[in-house]
Amino acid sequence: MIDAIRRAHEEYDVKIFVLTVTWVEHKLTHEQPSGYTYALDQVANELDILIFISTGNRDNLFQPVGTGLLDYPNHFSDELSNIKTPADSMNNISVGAVADDLQEQEFEGFSIDESYPAVYSRKNNLDWTDESLKRTLVNLQLIKPDILMPGGDFDKLTNEDIYGIQVLSSDVGSFYNKQPGTSYSAPLAANLAARMLKQYPSITNMQTIKALLINSAKEIDLGPEFESLPKRTRTAVSGRGRPKENSALYSDDHRVTFIIEGEIRPEKMEVFELRLPDYLNALYKDRSLLKVSATLCFSFDPVPNNHLAYCPIHFAFGFFRNVPVEEITNRKQKEVRLKEGWTEDYYFGDKILSNTQKVNFVISKPDLVSEDNLIRLGIHCRLHKHLDADRIAINNRLQPYSLAISIEENTLEEKREHSLYDELIAINRLEAIGEIDIDLEV
Fold this sequence. Notes:
By secondary structure, this protein is an alpha+beta fold. Helix content is 20%, strand content 23%. Helix 1 packs parallel to helix 2.
């Protein structure tokens, strides 16, 4: 598989791949990455490519004891619903499925609602609800699958040819087949990524495509049927949500998406200024005036046989008030945070680090007024505390990253008189205003 990927990239400059063949067995809870996952992470980092990997399907819709159908959605709590290797790959994108079959027909599938995770989709094998885990080991930014895309569904009698995804058939006499599965979700995600790359050919880092795709994802609105599942289990099933096509591909007058492709050395922090238009201060609305989502992604050279330090690089970012740059480095000064502060806490250094981090928050008018319409964005980098001297030497270099940020004016459409897009472009250059050393307390 690795040889085929290399040849396709070297001979045809292929940057986007789809992989829907997984191992037969699911991953055990908290099982470390396999050699296959390690190899895919290695090649993705080396070649700057992106592989869309299906989570694998839970094919047997019957209870393990054979006494009846699975108890949807409570079956997601079972270890049998864990993702399959190599869907735990961190440099690539893991894709699960929602039950949507992309057909205009009344939906009465197994999974109750077409917007819900499909019954056969799989969840993260890292169980953050596990009470035996030390608090310092839990990393709520480490989520698999990354996203969900339409994969169709079974009907209530477990037939697959009613709500399955319609695909071209290779059978003589049949134009189409209908089947459900994450094998259809993954190529749909790759198709969207290919259109993004075509739309913006100046993108230099495939992790930017990943950041844009995940940043456009909308959290899945799970109904009362999921209330019996812990919140962290619901996230383990739904990932970051389902990408919104228009948000991934375009900005408009009132919703702006921009990217920062940068690089920084470990033990350094960059700070950017983001100016927000003055017209916002005069709008009729005070609370939740702007909706912000931001996603940072980076690839890394994985560390074999070291579960904690498999990802050897720590990145984090945060939005802060209009304060001197030096004050942002002090984690004890919570008053400088615009919202939640840093996306990932490095202080303990015992957890598995995540190379995908996302935040969503709102900005209200008092935030604008108090900060003179200027907020600061901090990005810092460190090396994992559990690296040996050789790995420290290998990774002590400029580390590239991609950050996608979307800002949306949260006002009534009929009352909008200005273009947020034009105003933001006019007053921002998004260049780093400084790079400083970070102290041990960040």
